Amino acid sequence: MKNTSYYAERNNKNTIRIRRLLNDLPEFCYDYFTGIENTTSTLTRLNYAYDLRVFFDYMFNETNVFSGKNKNTLEPSDLEGVRASHIERYLSYLSAYEDQDGNMKVNTERGKARKLASVRSFFKYFYQKELISADVASKVKTPKLHDKNIIRLENDEIGKFLDEVESGYGLEGHAKGFHKKTQKRDLAMLTLLLGTGMRVSECVGLNLSDIDFSINGLKITRKGGNQVVIYFSDEVKVPLVDYINERNENPYLKDEPALFCSLQNKRITPRAVENLVKKYASISTPLKHITPHKLRSTYGTALYRETGDIYVVADVLGHKDVNTTKKHYAAISDDIRRKAATKVRLRD
Predict the structure, then answer these.
(1) Between 81 and which of 65, 69, 175, 252 could a Cys-Cys bridge form, CB atoms 3.0 to 4.6 Å apart?
(2) Residue 292: which H helix or E strand, with range?
């Protein structure tokens, strides 16, 4: 029997990647990653490792703060030489720079904010351990984040998108040939994403055993590792049942626990789902850059417009902080304000 834990396998791969990245970082960084292991996910630590590699590359190559030192001789006490101004210049450097392989990298305000958060976590750890006397990173202001326009599918666009998934009418060449083999899978998967608002990682992590059609429920694993049951409508159930019936006829998938599989008869990857969404959306809504996350936004928008309750949307989407939900769906509140303007009469 194959390993049924997609999340355990993903965490193992991330752990290996972190260890490889640590070889590029000062040796004392091991203490930091060990110290935060019980309070962060492997994905968070992996992102921290990538970000800290860029930070130390900058500090070694673009400043003289660590002059005479290298990654093997650097110690926590050497962080005392870092000033807030160094980190501010680092954020400016992130606007455009070349990585170790000579590839051009650029960062928007959001990319800079994330990398600053990584540096802040790093300095905070050693400050709390009393290995440095000041937490200079906490003094650096986060770049101002401008609100992004929320891109989503409107009702008529949802219909066009699913019609394209079902028919494959606009596909050409090899894509049309592949569609004949994957049509039921694609329709079931993308209908499920649109009908539940689940994350793409939650979708690809589903096993056959996670479905209970008697209650139209799915057991999914959220970002933090918590398992919850979410529910789907009969509109989602129909293509899902159709796909599973076809899947069960494939003898090569007899021992494969994954619900959604590739043509190689193994669990489909998040990147493959992203490519599928892009393929169908580029035909049905060519002027919009639609991703799996935009399908999630589409569901969240529809749910908020239907209920008007931001807390319900936050719970269903699995947002730990309702402010995250408000940020994503604040624009929709304009609809509610317009309705409110007609509810109070000044004169009979």
Answers:
(1) 65
(2) helix 292-307
Within a domain: 1:
no
CA angle in degrees (0–180, nearest 5) for 105-82-114: 40
* Single pTM value for the model: 0.80
Contact present, 190 and 280 (Cβ < 8 Å): yes
Q: Is residue 145 part of a domain?
A: no
Residue 304: which domain range? 155-340
pLDDT at 331: 55
Q: Are residues 45 and 78 in the same domain?
A: yes
Cβ contact 202:222 at 8 Å? yes
Last residue of a domain, one of 139, 167, 186: 139
Q: pLDDT digits over 215-272, tens only? A: 999 999 888 778 899 999 999 999 999 999 999 999 999 999 999 999 999 999 999 9
Tell me the C-alpha distance between 227 and 221, whole Å. 4
What is the C-alpha end-to-end distance of the chain, expressed in Å? 73
159 and 300 both lie in a single domain:
yes
What is the side-by-side strand order in the sheet with 211-212?
211-212, 217-221, 227-231
